[in-house]
Structure formats: structure tokens, C-alpha cells
Amino acid sequence: MNYHEQAIRIYCGSRWLYGVLSLPDIPCSRGVLVAVGGPQYRAGSHRQFVLLTRELARQNIACLRFDFRGMGDSEGDIRSFEAVDEDIASAVNFFLTECSFLQDVVIWGLCDAASAAMFYAHQDTRISGLVLLNPWVRTEEGIAKVYLRHHYLARLFQVEFWKKLISGQFNPIASVRSLYTLINSLSRAGNTSTASKNPGYSCSQLSLPERMFNGLQNFQGKVLIITSGKDVTAREFLDLVNTSVDWQNTFKTKQVKLSHLATANHTFSTREWRDQVAQLTGNWLRSW
To answer: What digits encode the pLDDT tens for the residues 96-126?
Structure first.
């Protein structure tokens, strides 16, 4: 299917955001807004967002990718992923106004852009779906658990570890110090977590995973989550879900679809992984 691309700018809070529309000749009524995570701009790591939006446009899906304020070519001060609601709302307004054939919008986000999408989506009824890749749920407690479970315990079953230990190449003091630091982090984080369960705790004082969970619970649309097998961020997110009855029940209630690419890294950096993500996204968007 043919498509064309158009440079655009979006007015947001007295600043201009810059982006690119990918428009198929015969578009469907559902569009995709790509939110950019981390210190990146609209092209993405290894041009991932460029290639994704072009592939979706070939599948008749209109796409908009843009830079948040302070990133790429966009004006204004840089801000964290926890303060981009206004940027996303402005982009959705522009997308629906410029593309009158659209009836709803799906937000696609990787890493902390996935977290930002979860914060925003439930506030805007025009958002019908979320595609979340390796959502960022980073806490001191979470990352400590990941390293304990997937690094230290896994090492006990590695031949290379025992070879080093027997040959004297293993430094037990450094490892014990590192392990102590992790356990200490877990202890401090556990105290914080207990405090956040107090009924009197305000929403603004909730942890990042708790705020993301609230966003997901309140969102009425559909959700596709894609995770990587070779990624610490994905492991932390999956560990959180696998050890939480609340998250698991919400996934069932919301009919969240999960896809896991076992060999992929955080940014899906090979052509094979990028194509798999594009195919999963396109198939899911056409399934409802």
C-alpha cells in the first residue's frame, strides 16, 4: 500500500513540537501515536520509530511520531516522562484534527514512554488502546530483586562461575559487598512500600508501579504488551506482574494481550526483532 510522509508541528503550551505524519493513501479509522521514551527523539534507536511507522502505514494505519518538549527539534525545557501529559494531549488533538478519517487513537510506547502512556490514557476517551513495550517500572526494590533472582542465583548454576571459584579468579569480598548492597536496598525499599499501603497515602506519594497500576485499572481500552527476553527492564516488569495478584487479575479483567520475544534486547535492535514488533502491532490493531 502506498503512503506519504509529512513534516508537521504541534502547538503545545506556547511551544512548538515537531514530528512526522505517515499517511496511507487508503487509511483505516484507527491511528497510532508513537510516544518517544528516554533521551531520544522521533527517529528512535536505530531508526526504530521511522521503520515502524512506515511499515504500519503500508498496512493502511496512519501514524504520528513527534518529539516531546525539550527533545529533538521541539521547543521548551526538557521534562521527565512523568510530566508529558500536555504534550501527548496536544499531539492527539492535532492527529485527530489533521486526520479527520480517524475515529480513535492507539498510543505506542517503549520503556518510560510506555509508563507515560499508562499515566495518560485513562484521562482521554479518544484513546482506544495501548501498545506497551518493556514498560519502565524501575524502583530500588525491583531492580535489586532482579539482580538477586536472575544474576546471583543464576550464577550458581553456571559452570564458568565454579571454574573461577576453583581457580581462585573469583573475588568473594567484592561479591559479598555487592550482595549486601542489594539486600540493604531491598530492606530500605520494603519500608517505603509498607508506608505506601497506608490508606491515608495520597496518590502523588505512590510508587511508580502503583501509579502505573492505577492508570491501567482506570483505562477502558485494549492493551498489548510486548517484552524482551534479554532486557533487565522487561525482567523487572515481568517479575512485578508475576508476583502480584492485583496485576494478574487486572490483566485478566482488561484482557491484556502479552507477547514475549525471548531473544530480543531492550530496543529490538535487529531487523528480525523490529519486524516482529511491527507485525505483532499491526495484527493486534486489526484484531478488534
So the answer is: 999 999 999 999 999 999 999 999 999 999 9
Distances (CA, A) of 138 to 32, 115, 143, 271: 26, 10, 7, 27
Q: How far apart (Å, rounded) are the C-alpha atoms in residues 170 and 176?
A: 11
C-alpha distances out from residue 145 to 78, 180, 194, 213, 243, Å = 31, 13, 17, 19, 11
Distance CA 104, CA 29 (A): 7
234: cell is 522487561
HSE-up (13 A, CA, CB side) for residue 249: 4
Q: Which of 15-19, 86-90, 166-170 has the lowest mean pLDDT?
A: 166-170
pLDDT of the residue at 179:
63
Instruction: Find, among 57, 68, 56, 61, the residue nearest to 18 by Cα.
Output: 68
Helix (H) and strand (E) counts in the chain? 11, 8
**What pTM, to 2 d.p., does this model score?**
0.83
Enter the C-alpha cell of residue 119: 499515566
Report DSSP state, residue 206: S
What are the grid coordinates assigned to 69, written together? 518538549
Which tens digit of pLDDT belongs to each residue from 178-237? 666 666 666 665 555 544 555 444 556 789 999 999 999 999 999 999 999 999 999 999
For the chain, strand residue ranges (E) read 3-12, 15-24, 30-35, 63-66, 104-110, 127-133, 222-230, 257-265
